[in-house]
Amino acid sequence: MNYSSKIFFLLCLCFQLLHAQSKEIKFLSGTDSEHTKEWDFWINGGRKSGNWDKIQVPSQWEQQGFGSYNYGRDYVTYGKNFKFNDEVGLYKHKFLVPNSWKGKSVNIVFEGSMTDTEVKINGKLAGAIHQGAFYEFKYDISDKLNFGKENILEVKVSKMSADKSVNNAERLADYWILGGIFRPVYLEITPKENISSTSIDAKADGTFRSNIHLKGIEAVNNLKVELFDAKNILIGESQIKIEKGDTLKQIQFSVKNPKLWTAETPNLYKAKFSLKKNKKNIYDTEEKFGFRTIEIRKGDGIYINGTKIKMKGINRHVWWPETGRAVSKNIDLMDVQLIKEMNMNAVRCSHYPPNKSFLKACDSLGLYVLDELAGWQKKYSTEVGKKLVREMVTKDANHPSIIFWSNGNEGGHNFDLDTEFAKYDVSNRPVIHAHHKPGNAFNGIDCNHYEDYYSTKTILEGENIYMPTEFLHAQDDGGGGTSLADYWELHWNSKKGAGGFIWAFADEGLVRTDFNNQIDVNAINAPDGVVGPHREKEGSFYAIREIYSPVKIDIKTISNDFNGNIPVENRYHFTNLNECQFEWKLIKFKTPYSSESGFDVLQKGKAESPNIKPTEKGNINLNLPQNWKESQALLLTATDPFGKEIYTWTWKISSNNEISKQFQKTLTKEFPVSVAENDSLFILKSEEKEFSIGKKNGLLKSVILDKKGKKMTFRNGPVFVNGKTELSSIKSFAEGKNQIIEVSYKNGNKIIWKLNPDGILELNYEYALSGDYPFAGVSFDYPENYVISAKWLGKGPYHVWKNRTQGQTYNVWHNLKNSTRTGSSPWIYPEFKGYYDNVSWLQLDTAEGKITIGTKEEKMFVRLFDFYGIYGAEGFPKLPSGNISFLDTIPPLGTVLAFNINDKTESLGPESELNHLNGTFKRTLYFYFGLPDLDDEKKQFTMPKENILTD
């Protein structure tokens, strides 16, 4: 055998699958975006056009350096005269076909090609041009192949469709419009007599039913179905006779007590379908499935296996920055894991059917899926739509995770297609319309988009189940977790509330190969995710995780009479909390001048898992040791039945007053203090340090650290962030070893500066407010460009808003300064700037030295520098004066669809109202500039290291 013959023989062997008499697969392209193959390519316009070149398949041709970029809303942005780049790409690929395929059926399969696709084999058309970008299609090419020889595949792909309705439904949409063969291409080789597809309906009572589509039946006379559990043990079987020419047979039988599929219990089984001729297997195929029953009880709710469920869902585009909509099974798996990590149970495939590997991951890990026919505000024609419904449902029908078919989005519903889904889905799943206008309920479910909190309450009192398929639009830092707690409580406690789907999972940022690989989110159009383009976690990610925790714990603080009992509500639908695990830790935080962040674990233990049934309430008894109050904080971690962390809650035990005393004990040296004055300043002095206080307003004007005059540019405070202050009186006097400057203002506000012998500059202030305010407290100035990092004891590591404090936990956190603006480059999280919650002390590491600030009272927010939650014509919400603030209240954040120029957010619910203030507010701040002598401090860090609380 010569060399070329050996190669050909080996290639023929590679064409075979592991299972004899089963479908054989030969990939002509790569298997996904991580495993591609090189084909010949030519494009008619844009970059690298007019010459034959090489391209990786599957891919988007823009990401391979060809053609031009379009965002789908460009026609809106640029007007009626705008024309999309109607690029056409030509692909060529040669492949060998062995003689052993003679007499078999050979299909060429395209899992996804954008958009109109013409296929030729050896110069002959494989069939009609396929129109529609997101759908699997195939051609029988058995009669066009040269067996035992090389064959030529030619594919012509048009980025825009010749069918106007396809462009309206898919291309003129609010997302990136790309071109090319973006999903795998392969050959399916089967016997002439085969099973072309199956559709399975497996009910919770154990009834198994399947429609089995047959092709080429001549001599086969028997069809057998066998069911196997996860351990490959046979649990049931049945067989029926078939006759020549049969194209469809239905088989039905029952098994006893199957393990049911839900998002909480994703139990999967395998069905093996066999064609037999005289007891000999001619053809086998297998499908995974789950036993579960879906019901819509009109005027009541959505039921899975007889239990009402509520959707904790999110919208997901198929997306990766470098490869566009060409993705891999690793990306699909990662996305399902991230959605599950947020304690979500559902995903909407917006706005088109996804990859097979994504649905397989939803099946195996457990997510309820809305599988959607494309139709972004405009619909397919009936002629095209019927074909695409058939392709979509035929491919996806056996996934137990899919509980709804969605017929288009926001007006992109062709009502003539509503009855088409059931033709290919024997389980007859419910069909919904994902719409954005009231009064368009379908099948008893209202899916209206972007209602506010109060209109949601009204809808929930109506006749239909309410399940918004889009709500809380998460552009920039708005939406997502913002206001979610209020919305979720509405749905959880309402009979007809079915939950909903946040817009959206990931920022649709595209690596622009025409702009030095910068990531482009198309301005305000695409930064809509709760994770970044590469799945960088934003603050909303963690807020959602706490709000949607199926172990619901509301306790905010630990009181002195705490007895170790934690009230808890079980918000699982199918899982008893005795199936979960609970572990507590008692900890001590690192101090400001420790070289480390995080905490030391003093004691830990496991709590007995309580017997609390789904939707019921009870208590977790931690059985803490008697000396638990000697610790500074308590951690509680809940773990689900699969060993995955649900959430970790933290509660501070030590008060800020106690923590500040420890801070002062660090400073062991004392120096006499004095005061000097001139026409404009009081100058407080301690050893080498000087603090100048303006006589006209009582504000800190300068800080000098040593005799050489080294300055710390922390100044111009405390400025009260509400109203104007006018000096009433200012005086200086001694109080024991301390030196005091007392300032009074005409509006009743007061501040007292006190310099202590240990070098701490103490600030006491008070102010009175009555009314609604976005924020309250005081501010200082410090040059942002001098700051290196921030370390603090408090909630973190992400910034918060009044209506999104969830998801952040107590620890000593340390963030390096960055300039991240949520939703845009660079995606470095956590963001450095923002409001931080429940800060006990903060230390800024700067080019001038360290600045350490502590507080005596509880519940202090710290604002770091200038930032906005939503970026439009103006930034929202408005900021306090100064650029470092110590606040008693902070503002809520709206969404891009729920704010106006007056920054009003109250329509989003109680948490989103301004702060209703009435009274006097007092706070003590402690400032230390520079580093103390740490010889005694080092003795405090001899305990064993445990961990840093992270995600």
From TrEMBL:
InterPro entries: Bact_Beta-galactosidase, Beta-gal/glucu_dom_sf, Gal_mutarotase_sf_dom, Galactose-bd-like_sf, GH, GH-type_carb-bd, Glyco_hydro_2, Glyco_hydro_2_cat. It catalyses: Hydrolysis of terminal non-reducing beta-D-galactose residues in beta-D-galactosides. Gene3D superfamilies: 2.70.98.10, Galactose-binding domain-like (2.60.120.260), Glycosidases (3.20.20.80), Immunoglobulins (2.60.40.10). Residues 295-515 form the Glycoside hydrolase family 2 catalytic domain. SUPFAM superfamilies: (Trans)glycosidases (SSF51445), beta-Galactosidase/glucuronidase domain (SSF49303), Galactose mutarotase-like (SSF74650), Galactose-binding domain-like (SSF49785). Residues 53-191 form the Glycosyl hydrolases family 2 sugar binding domain. Monomer. Belongs to the glycosyl hydrolase 2 family. This is Beta-galactosidase. The lineage of its organism: Bacteria, Pseudomonadati, Bacteroidota, Flavobacteriia, Flavobacteriales.
